[in-house]
From TrEMBL:
Top enzyme class: oxidoreductase
GO CC annotations on file: cytoplasm
Enzyme Commission number(s) of this protein: 1.1.1.45
PANTHER family the record matches: 3-HYDROXYACYL-COA DEHYDROGENASE FAMILY PROTEIN, LAMBDA-CRYSTALLIN HOMOLOG
Subunit structure of this chain's protein: Homodimer.
3-hydroxyacyl-CoA dehydrogenase C-terminal domain boundaries: 167-263
Binding annotation for NAD(+): G12, V13, G14, L15, M16, G17, D35, E73, K78, S99, N123, K257
Keywords: Cytoplasm, NAD, Oxidoreductase, Phosphoprotein
Protein name in the entry: L-gulonate 3-dehydrogenase
Positions of the 3-hydroxyacyl-CoA dehydrogenase NAD binding domain: 44-163
Length: 290
């Protein structure tokens, strides 16, 4: 099937938006990036000259076939931009990179909600293959198929969810694991370092190679029935963020972005971590462009 470049607008050029814009431009699409911050647009243009940039929303979305929205995680701000998009270009597909807001609630801000879906990339967009595509209540099959084909051509791994659910799939899975991991640390069962090592040395590698459902099936459903029956009543069921995170945030220790979080950070260590994560993804999904 021949490739036809699309006209794509990317709104917001922070870490995620810039990564999405450069990924789609490298895939051969005609990408125009919009942001209210002139310095952010200049930085993106310097790194990726083939991406057009503009501070004018009408210029960005006027002729776009697809609009990838990656602005602040604020419903009112997104709806304000969506209202402008609807007035400028009512026929384009709009895909939000939100990681927490409801697809149907977001779609209600557009004049054509059937042309909306969530396209949830992961940090960093150029490294992590997965993109969760989440339909809203009225999203059309044509919209989903257009996004799937566009992402697939860009070397991503699009997974279209059967219906919307808060947090989608990946965030719900990792939130469940984080709840138990922090509970074990708070109870003094294991340190943060040892919990990381346990996941890296067993669970993580198996899940990366096969996925949790395949691992369960390979081990034996009867065995896991017994394990789940024994352990489920004992697992953490807290409903607030763990104390270790709350206290660190109060101190302004936000992780890599501030140089300290659960661990200390240097730029060199953080880059080495990104490189190592990229190498792991390359083993399983070598076709993904970097």
């Amino acid at each position: 099937m021949s490739f036809e470049p699309m006209r794509i607008a990317v709104l917001g050029v922070g870490l995620m938006g810039a990564g999405i814009a450069s990924l789609l431009a490298d895939a051969g699409h005609n990408v125009t990036a919009w942001d209210v911050r002139a310095d952010a647009l200049a930085e993106l243009k310097a790194a990726f000259p083939r991406i057009a940039t503009t501070p004018d929303l009408a210029t960005a979305v006027g002729s776009a076939q697809v609009v990838m929205e990656a602005i602040a995680e604020n419903l009112a701000a997104k709806h304000a931009v969506y209202a402008s998009i609807s007035a400028i270009n009512a026929t384009c597909i709009v895909a939000s990179n939100t990681s927490s807001l409801s697809a149907s609630l977001l779609a209600s801000g557009l004049s054509s909600p059937e042309r909306f879906a969530i396209a949830h990339f992961f940090n960093h967009p150029r490294i992590v293959p997965l993109v969760e595509v989440v339909p809203a209540e009225h999203t059309s099959e044509e919209t989903l198929e257009t996004l799937r084909a566009m992402l697939d051509h860009a070397g991503k791994l699009p997974v279209i969810l059967r219906k919307e659910v808060p947090g989608f799939v990946a965030n719900r899975l990792q939130a469940a694991m984080y709840r138990e991991a922090f509970a074990l640390a708070e109870e003094g069962v294991a340190s943060f370092e040892d919990i990381d090592l346990i996941v890296r040395g067993a669970l993580g590698s198996r899940w990366a190679a096969a996925g949790p459902m395949t691992v369960v099936d390979a081990a034996g459903l009867d065995i896991w029935q017994a394990v789940m029956t024994q352990l489920y009543p004992l697992l953490s069921n807290v409903t607030e963020a763990p104390a270790a995170i709350r206290e660190a945030v109060e101190r302004g220790e936000l992780g890599a972005k501030t140089g300290k979080g659960l661990y200390g950070h240097t730029k060199e260590q953080d880059q080495a971590l990104r490189d190592r994560i990229g190498e792991h993804f390359n083993l399983e999904f070598p076709a993904v462009p970097k």
